[in-house]
Amino acid sequence: MSASMSSMKETRQRMSAPEQDNVVPEAGSDFVETPYVKDITDRALAYLHVGYPVHFSGPAGTGKTTLAFHVAAKLKRTVMLIHGDDEFGSSDLIGKDSGYRKAKVVDNYIHSVVKTEESMNTVWADNRLTIACQQGCTLVYDEFTRSRPEANNAFLSVLEEKILNIPSLRDIDQGYLQVHPEFRAIFTSNPEEYAGVHKTQDAMMDRLITITLDHFDRDTEVQVTMSKSDLPQKDAEKIVDIVRKLRKTGVNNHRPTIRACIAIGKILKHMGGGASKDNFVFKQICRDVLNVDTTKVTRDGEPLLPRKIDELINSL
After folding, report:
1. Kindly report the CA angle at 155 between 153 and 158, in degrees rounded to 5?
2. Which of 10, 218, 264, 297 has its CB surrounded by the most CB atoms within 10 Å?
3. Residue ranges of region Disordered (predicted)?
4. Tell me: the pLDDT tens digits for 201-215?
């Protein structure tokens, strides 16, 4: 009797992909932990150690994802990352059929008789939520409100009853999976008025402890700018002050963010010179990086922001 077994190579690759994405993060050497950041980190860790999921909510540029990974690194567990997506269904979180496996048995025991048997079975591939629940990973679900609410329904029983309901197609006896006791979840989200963001069901929000983030305080923004650009403190302070004053222009304006400070700092360091009103290169960098008219405010029929940038630079 001889036997041969074959399966699609692509299927094996898809099945292993989520597990290959597992990482154990470490705090970066350039991570800035000011009192403001440490306070948020300590609170989040306390909630997670007790067993509650943490939700970082706030506008773009307030460090939600960076904080999520920093907190996850403190837990010293393998991290599974998911990015919210409007095309997500529950199967993209739990798992689904991902190809097939074909088996063929050729029986030639009797020389004059050849017996052939073939069978074909679907192959189930676990996705990130199932793997995280099974292995006790720290799940970081970045911008989870970009996924439709019904796609996230699987989290309701995971976060409350610590049980993941799974389809009967999966090759186990039960229709559910007991969540690993070390499983932890960290969510991030943008405000609901942002494009592409869905309103989350109340049942989901009721299971999360939400930490609302705003822009960093001045000291933290200066330290981050220095760390990322390697600029002297006095130059970083000038850049941060310009950006922070621009945020106060207009109504409900959250831009420019800390990303603008970092961009100006890195480019200025690369091109040389300091943050001075007499440095033409610095002026050009600020005009280019900060030239986003988010305020929709005009003066004498012209956009206010370019004038405001020049005024702030000249006031240095």
Report:
1. 135
2. 264
3. 1-25
4. 999 999 999 999 999
Phi, psi of 192 (to 5 degrees): -65, -25
Q: Are 29 and 70 in contact (CB under 8 A)?
A: no
Residues 166, 65, single domain; the answer is: yes
Same domain as 139, residue 202 = yes
Here the tokens at position 178 are 């007991």
d(CA 209, CA 186): 10
What is the C-alpha to C-alpha distance for residues 298 and 305, in angstroms, rounded to an integer? Answer: 8
Of 73, 99, 120, nearest to 17 (Cα)? 99
pLDDT digits (tens, 9 = 90+) for 158-188: 999 999 988 765 555 567 889 999 999 999 9
Are residues 201 and 241 located together in one domain of the fold? Answer: no
Q: What pLDDT, in 10s, does the model give residues 73-107?
A: 999 999 999 999 999 888 888 876 565 556 666 66
Cα-Cα end-to-end distance for the chain: 87
Distance CA 161, CA 143 (A): 24
Among 219, 254, 252, 245, which residue's Cα sits nearest to residue 312?
245
Q: How many CB atoms within 10 Å of residue 220?
A: 19
Structure-block tokens of residue 235: 């130059």
Measured in degrees and rounded to the nearest 5, phi and psi for residue 167 equal -65, 155
Calculate Rg over the CA atoms of the chain.
26
Note whether 294 and 232 are same-domain residues. Answer: yes
Q: Could you tell me the residue range of the domain that residue 224 belongs to?
A: 218-314
Rounded CA gap, 109 and 48, in Å? 61
Sheet holding 138-142, edge to edge: 79-83, 138-142, 184-189, 54-57, 209-212
